[in-house]
Backbone:
């Protein structure tokens, strides 16, 4: 029943946007595979594929723009892009978040396998050269630590794949520890053929839901968010969500 209801909702919405049939919905983020990967590839990321499956039947074309995370948030907030991919609620609290998350991610601290250091709370981070990505939401406590100039932290930014750069720095011992969502770190390290070099030194809090979050500047964002939530439920019920995730060797988080 629910997939049918969603298709009827989509059809009605389509009829109300006949002037927007060729409009592109521009979704922006940095490369954070497997959520969003290389733009234009046959595997652009499972969040990108979900967005395509939901919105293309409505007559929209989903365009995924790779850019650094800070710019993605800033430009989407202004309305230059329609949404950001892979957002935690703390990344952009003024954005419009759907009811349906698109992943559950655990932030972890990674070290080289031979490194005996283990995370024992934020105070223990002073013992290591920590790497993180500028603009990411790591939770209130760690974010305060990263913001202090007195702590030994390297914040990576820019459009030149900061995650890959951070993994290389960790491998070459230019960093002692690196904080990242576990799913993303292991996927990227595997693609770089470096996964055997690292281990988890500790986790930060509970797993967090990650979303496609819509611009607060677009009056249609509430509608887009609702349609995305309904569409994800329809994809789950039909088995299409499982097929998308399987392309990235993943299973439904629910």
Residues:
């Amino acid at each position: 029943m629910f997939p049918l209801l969603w298709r009827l909702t989509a059809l009605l919405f389509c009829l109300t946007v006949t002037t927007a049939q060729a409009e592109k919905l521009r979704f922006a983020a940095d490369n954070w595979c497997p959520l969003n990967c290389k733009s234009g590839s046959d595997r652009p990321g499972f969040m990108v594929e979900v967005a395509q499956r939901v919105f293309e039947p409505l007559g929209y074309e989903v365009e995924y723009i790779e850019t650094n995370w800070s710019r993605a948030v800033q430009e989407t907030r202004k309305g230059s892009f329609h949404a950001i991919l892979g957002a935690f609620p703390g990344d952009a609290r003024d954005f419009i978040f759907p009811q349906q998350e698109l992943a559950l991610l655990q932030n972890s601290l990674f070290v080289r396998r031979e490194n005996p250091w283990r995370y024992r709370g934020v105070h223990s981070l002073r013992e290591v050269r920590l790497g993180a990505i500028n603009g990411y939401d790591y939770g209130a406590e760690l974010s305060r630590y990263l913001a202090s100039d007195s702590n030994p932290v390297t914040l990576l930014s820019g459009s030149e794949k900061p995650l890959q750069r951070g993994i290389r720095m960790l491998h070459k011992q230019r960093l002692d520890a690196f904080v990242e969502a576990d799913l993303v770190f292991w996927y990227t390290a595997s693609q770089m053929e470096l996964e055997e070099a690292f281990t988890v030194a500790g986790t930060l809090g509970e797993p967090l839901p990650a979303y496609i979050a819509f611009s607060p500047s677009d009056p249609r964002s509430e509608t887009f968010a609702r349609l995305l939530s309904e569409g994800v439920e329809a994809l789950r019920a039909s088995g299409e969500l499982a097929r998308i995730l399987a392309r990235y060797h993943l299973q439904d988080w629910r």
